[in-house]
Amino acid sequence: MCASVKYNIRGPALIPRMKTKHRIYYITLFSIVLLGLIATGMFQFWPHSIESSNDWNVEKRSIRDVPVVRLPADSPIPERGDLSCRMHTCFDVYRCGFNPKNKIKVYIYALKKYVDDFGVSVSNAISREYNELLMAISDSDYYTDDINRACLFVPSIDVLNQNTLRIKETAQALAQLSRWDRGTNHLLFNMLPGGPPDYNTALDVPRDRALLAGGGFSTWTYRQGYDVSIPVYSPLSAEVDLPEKGPGPRQYFLLSSQVGLHPEYREDLEALQVKHGESVLVLDKCTNLSEGVLSVRKRCHKHQVFDYPQVLQEATFCVVLRGARLGQAVLSDVLQAGCVPVVIADSYILPFSEVLDWKRASVVVPEEKMSDVYSILQSIPQRQIEEMQRQARWFWEAYFQSIKAIALATLQIINDRIYPYAAISYEEWNDPPAVKWGSVSNPLFLPLIPPQSQGFTAIVLTYDRVESLFRVITEVSKVPSLSKLLVVWNNQNKNPPEDSLWPKIRVPLKVVRTAENKLSNRFFPYDEIETEAVLAIDDDIIMLTSDELQFGYEVWREFPDRLVGYPGRLHLWDHEMNKWKYESEWTNEVSMVLTGAAFYHKYFNYLYTYKMPGDIKNWVDAHMNCEDIAMNFLVANVTGKAVIKVTPRKKFKCPECTAIDGLSLDQTHMVERSECINKFASVFGTMPLKVVEHRADPVLYKDDFPEKLKSFPNIGSL
Amino acid sequence: MQSWRRRKSLWLALSASWLLLVLLGGFSLLRLALPPRPQPGASQGWPRWLDAELLQSFSQPGELPEDAVSPPQAPHGGSCNWEACFDTSKCRGDGLKVFVYPAVGPISETHRRILASIEGSRFYTFSPAGACLLLLLSLDAQTGECSSMPLQWNRGRNHLVLRLRPAPCPRTFQLGQAMVAEASPTVDSFRPGFDVALPFLPEAHPLRGGAPGQLRQHSPQPGVALLALEEERGGWRTADTGSSACPWDGRCEQDPGPGQTQRQETLPNATFCLISGHRPEAASRFLQALQAGCIPVLLSPRWELPFSEVIDWTKAAIVADERLPLQVLAALQEMSPARVLALRQQTQFLWDAYFSSVEKVIHTTLEVIQDRIFGTSAHPSLLWNSPPGALLALSTFSTSPQDFPFYYLQQGSRPEGRFSALIWVGPPGQPPLKLIQAVAGSQHCAQILVLWSNERPLPSRWPETAVPLTVIDGHRKVSDRFYPYSTIRTDAILSLDARSSLSTSEVDFAFLVWQSFPERMVGFLTSSHFWDEAHGGWGYTAERTNEFSMVLTTAAFYHRYYHTLFTHSLPKALRTVADEAPTCVDVLMNFIVAAVTKLPPIKVPYGKQRQEAAPLAPGVPGPRPKPPAPAPDCINQIAAAFGHMPLLSSRLRLDPVLFKDPVSVQRKKYRSLEKP
């Protein structure tokens, strides 16, 4: 409305007042300029298409127009392949030497078309899967386009399926690759090896020292630690979306879905079906399908028609029998359906068996025991079956689902062999994400009671309370197992007292000056800490007796992976406020100990300083509070264990601070501490603290027993 | 005038537009004219083909040949694999049964003791016909027992030839289909999944028990050498890794370690131990490093690592390529403290679990073969590779790690919140009515089992309880107390004697404590062991002292797994010891649990006055009068059978948080625990 009014005022005011002939002239000129500008703009905004069409002309980017290479009939053929090859004999590891990131670099040869002397093509065009595979490698971190920096070479000659190859000529094509050098550091991918009639279990193309990532290796052809056994990719998995089906009993106990089985095997399976009735289902190819129905996607039992692969989701166990080849694509379908594969193929090397623990996801039955397969499966407890179903589906998702997954897993395996100190662990390969999240791996997992002779290092954090500090030093130095005392001087404006003024004690005393007054300095892994046990102690804790401290150390020795402290604290869920609350005294339970005086393993200092999740460390330093709660969270989270509260002591009552110990201060204190708990719980994403109802006392504590015979008679009470 | 001004501004606008046009267009034209250069750094990658959609799949459906299965392949040229050369049909029933060929002629002491050890194990059978594995010991050449072919040879089928030291005998007969378990086999001759790789044991390796690992602390001591290198004559020297140009070719000997001058085999003191992969003798260094807690760094080993079929060596050792020394050195120097910590601990666990004695090595070998036979009910990898290890975590109990008490945390699971009370009623056979009431009163009690084990007839009436009460009758032996009865349905067992006396509150608190320590025994009354200088043996006492190492099983919580372990893994001879001297059963049970956990048991408070009034079990005292010392020798018999003393002492007791606290009794949850 407003705009149209303006137009009515201004627009007509400009143009109609000119002379008509000028008007037309100007309008034409203006439009030409405008058009020119628009054209230029378009030119500017699509520069890439113009540029790249320069490198790869539209015609050249078609697969049909790759350069043609003629292979003379007498060009060299590689050796057959050396069965004794191992990484340290046949692999040139020097090529992988440059890499600081512990990652191999992979080069892909450019695609070419190979023809023989008569101009006849050596092989079919590159397959869809091999193209995807090379694309996946090219998109990954492994890829390099610098042939001189590469450690692994992947030819673009597609040997996934041996049936499509002319063996001799393919071998010649390999031999003329620019860096072939007897196949050293070359990796070939093959899923369907061998040919009629006896179907070798490895690619028949002579390949000398080249590594083979093959589907369907047997123990006779697989070079352990050199070749990689890979799955036979099932193209169905790209077409069919089978949503994950939870574990549990299914309609059929055992199912066989393969077509083209050897009659002997089929007889065995049908005998099983006769014996066990409904719970076994043996499917075959459909013979009476109407036109237009894909026979690959249907299976039949007598006249009943089933959808494939959906029917696999109806079975608990699915048979994977060897056919002409050992490796079967059906394995992938079965895993996708969360059906536990029953692998009956003697000497078959299961895919990625170097790293995957197939015992957790499959049942391997020797061929001669095929008739017992039902009873073997029945002896497996239900819980283990469910575990296997989950594991099967996870293997498919992680390593079978796509050509990309297969390619990357293969490269990772080779990478782990070359940089073993940076290798991926068994758990990372095998544990499904849910297990990885739920489990705790205690960094101090070895049950070990450190010898008493090691003693502990006391770390006193201090600012300027010198008098109180000296009292603490004198008191702590009376503890028999103290082996060193470290004072962390957190005051940058003031120098620590002169050497001569410090109390003389029987153990070494070191003063460390810090660069900044931060609470986290108390938990820094100082080089001066030589013992495993650390006693963190505030510079005003003078009420703990020598017996109490020595006993605390003894308790730590029995629980070296826990925080061992004196006053205990508790976290509680406040139902009204719907958040965590900090509770300080008089409770029957504890979940934290104060680090005003606490023993713990020095490794937790390293974790606190370098591995504390999120911004907790900075947050604590900024708020000058809750470093002890943060430590409690950290230790509980990493070990999954509760703290140990020692002796009945409930608070550190210091005579100096009673004056400010007012009620209101106490309340704000509690509110702040509650906030800390809520903050930390949200950063950790969970509440790691564990609540227990016990504390540790000396064996004869308060027992009716002569005091002088007790080891730790002087245990304080409050 | 006005129109002129307007025209002027119009012209200005026009010319500005033209200028813009020329500038922009000119640039574009310029760019078109010059050939583009490939940008350095931007990699081209694999091209995106325009016709990628049209590509064919590598396998066409229906392409696969049908009915073309070749007959099962025969072993190639004498080579064997598990399916082809081992007949598992003989191994039905109770797992692996092993027959050992008796020695012919004079044999060495070691040989005799190994034979005895296998004969005492649960795998042993005395008839070759009933055995599924026939074991041929091939130990030392000089005694000459390895020359004859055994009677039941049958081309070596189902045979295992055990060679503790590499090839002592010239081969006088073809191995045929026999499996070979030998020390450090070369990678080329080793048949994975069929042969078993053993560690290279030194001459003086202990037969049983064995020295514990040397590691006394989890993390490396500050200032300890990073790297130790093996020396020709059996010692180790530490390498100065400060200068980066100092790999392990002997050029950097400026820092001779303490091991240099000593002839006898010393253990290395360093974080990493570098071991050459060429000489099989270096494999003995591998064991030394494990024992010392020095992380082995193996340079391109030509030999198979021991028990590589089941042990995940990546968790305890580093296998590196000898051709990249600088990279390996850099990787060791930069390794994170977390990884070093984990590797160190794993070396110790593996040493203690599988390598510290000849007996453990042999049992591990048999366990590996049994796992192959068991198939799906074999040990999962986790059981082999986490403490306490597969020899102590029986797969016959469960194949799910979350069923074992020691894997709860790792698995993110926890024990059930209920327990079963198992009350043993020995002579004189009074039904423990009061005890039943007290235990049944606990909110955590799931069931009560009464094990009637005396001459008197079963009472027909039992008290009414809130929980089911089952009576098991007919057993007389003391060791039956620890039989894994199928009627026990909870993880936790409260083992009781009919004469024990406990209050509900004591039971409740002890059970809560047990839930925090499900792998340990939690008991009320304790005793402790000591070394008796005068008699040169172990002794134990139930006197109250400042520390303890055993809890009495007449009132103790523990995991039901220990019943399985007690019954199925102990040699029969040991259980007989317990039956003959009933007080020994406590010692035996404490030994097993300590051998598994490597930790002391846990004591909880127990009302004193009743302790004086009614001693828990015969031979278990109040403070006075002094009891007759229980059969003193059983602890020594048991320690000898274990080969070492697994018991550890604790100096603490776990009390309720407010125990004997001056606060009001009303605040306390376990009031009755501290009534005078």
TrEMBL record, chain A:
GO MF annotations, alphabetized: glucuronosyl-N-acetylglucosaminyl-proteoglycan 4-alpha-N-acetylglucosaminyltransferase activity; glucuronosyltransferase activity; metal ion binding
Any one Gene Ontology BP term: heparan sulfate proteoglycan biosynthetic process
InterPro entries on file: Exostosin, Exostosin_GT47, GT64_dom, Nucleotide-diphossugar_trans
Ranges for domain Glycosyl transferase: 456-701
Subcellular location as annotated: Endoplasmic reticulum membrane; Golgi apparatus, cis-Golgi network membrane
Assembly information from the UniProt record: Part of the heparan sulfate polymerase, a dimeric complex composed of EXT1 and EXT2. Could also form homooligomeric complexes. Interacts with NDST1. Interacts with GALNT5.
Membrane topology: Single-pass type II membrane protein
Domain Exostosin GT47: from-to ranges: 101-380
A Pfam family that the UniProt record links to this protein: Exostosin_GT47
Function summary: Glycosyltransferase forming with EXT1 the heterodimeric heparan sulfate polymerase which catalyzes the elongation of the heparan sulfate glycan backbone. Glycan backbone extension consists in the alternating transfer of (1->4)-beta-D-GlcA and (1->4)-alpha-D-GlcNAc residues from their respective UDP-sugar donors.
Name of this protein: Exostosin-2
Enzyme Commission no: 2.4.1.224
Record pathway: Protein modification; protein glycosylation
UniProt keyword terms in alphabetical order: Disulfide bond, Endoplasmic reticulum, Glycoprotein, Glycosyltransferase, Golgi apparatus, Manganese, Membrane, Metal-binding, Signal-anchor, Transferase, Transmembrane, Transmembrane helix
Coiled coil: none
Transmembrane intervals: 24-46
Reaction(s) this enzyme catalyzes, per UniProt: 3-O-{[(1->4)-beta-D-GlcA-(1->4)-alpha-D-GlcNAc](n)-(1->4)-beta-D-GlcA-(1->3)-beta-D-Gal-(1->3)-beta-D-Gal-(1->4)-beta-D-Xyl}-L-seryl-[protein] + UDP-N-acetyl-alpha-D-glucosamine = 3-O-{alpha-D-GlcNAc-[(1->4)-beta-D-GlcA-(1->4)-alpha-D-GlcNAc](n)-(1->4)-beta-D-GlcA-(1->3)-beta-D-Gal-(1->3)-beta-D-Gal-(1->4)-beta-D-Xyl}-L-seryl-[protein] + UDP + H(+)
Domain of life the protein comes from: Eukaryota
GO CC list: endoplasmic reticulum membrane; Golgi apparatus
Family the entry assigns: Belongs to the glycosyltransferase 47 family.
TrEMBL record, chain B:
GO biological process, alphabetically ordered: heparan sulfate proteoglycan biosynthetic process
Keyword Transmembrane: yes
Pathway, per record: Protein modification; protein glycosylation
Listed EC numbers: 2.4.1.224
Membrane topology listed for this record: Single-pass type II membrane protein
Stretches the record annotates as Disordered: 238-264
Highest taxon, organism lineage: Eukaryota
Pfam families (UniProt xref): Exostosin_GT47, Glyco_transf_64
UniProtKB keywords: Disulfide bond, Endoplasmic reticulum, Glycoprotein, Glycosyltransferase, Membrane, Signal-anchor, Transferase, Transmembrane, Transmembrane helix
Family, as annotated: Belongs to the glycosyltransferase 47 family.
Function: Glycosyltransferase required for the biosynthesis of heparan-sulfate (HS). Transfers N-acetyl-alpha-D-glucosamine to the nascent HS chain (GlcNAcT-II activity). Appears to lack GlcNAcT I and GlcAT-II activities.
Protein name (record): Exostosin-like 1
Species of the source: Pan troglodytes (Chimpanzee)
